[in-house]
Write a structure and sequence with these properties.
Number of domains: 2
Strand content: 5-15%
Radius of gyration: 19 Å
Helix content: 40-55%
Oligomer: single chain
Length: about 150
């Protein structure tokens, strides 16, 4: 996987996830060479995670893989580090996570209902959630984040 990351970012290091890099482990590419060693082990683990999630709703429903993939939450910022021996790793990027989960996208309305006000429903004064930002403030926040992203990368 590091080969793909380096290939995609020869001039600068990658900050974060290169999502397409995982494809070589699901659909072996590797210049026509079969996966071997650690790559084969990671490929097998990824396939088991996906099958477990598709069949049970939990990528690690038991201890058979030797680790548990626990969900991320506002109080526990950890992610699964996908290596030949995957482990849960702490994240120090809470502010970035809070920024991206604050945008009023359909996914955020589903995943973070407590943080996002649905514009199709009027704000309730008795609600415990804060008043929603006007749409133009959300747009400018998004635009600012997008500009910062392109400047940084």
């Amino acid at each position: 996987m590091n080969v793909v990351v380096c290939t995609l970012s020869a001039s600068r290091p990658v900050a974060g996830v290169v999502h397409p890099a995982i494809l070589q482990y699901l659909f072996p590419y590797s210049d026509g060479q079969p996966l071997t060693g650690a790559d084969k082990q990671l490929s097998d683990t990824l396939l088991r995670l996906w099958v477990n999630f598709a069949t049970t709703g939990d990528p690690t429903p038991d201890a058979s893989l030797g680790f548990r993939w626990t969900p991320i939450s506002a109080s526990k910022q950890a992610y699964l580090s996908l290596t030949p021996t995957p482990t849960m790793t702490s994240s120090s990027r809470l502010n970035e996570w809070l920024l991206w989960t604050s945008f009023p996208t359909e996914a955020n309305r589903f995943l973070h209902l407590d943080r996002i006000q649905d514009p199709r429903r009027p704000y309730s004064a008795t609600s415990s959630s804060p008043a929603p930002q006007p749409p133009e403030e959300n747009f400018f926040s998004f635009l600012l984040a997008l500009i910062c992203y392109f400047i940084a990368f």
